[in-house]
Amino acid sequence: MAKNDYVMVSPQVTHYPDWEKGQIIEVEDNPWRGTVIVVRMENGDVFWDVEDYFEKVA
What we know:
Elements (H helix, E strand, L loop, with lengths): L5 E4 L1 H4 L5 E11 L3 E8 L4 E5 L3 E3 L2
């Protein structure tokens, strides 16, 4: 996953009822958590968490 890629974001991150589409705005290599993805959703909300909670859109 890289900056500007589109991903589906888990409800565990967003607390929305379903997986939602967002665009990666930053990828961070965190020494304690691993790769952290920062995503801006279509409604403007921003979320971040480890890459396990994101699925790249084909």
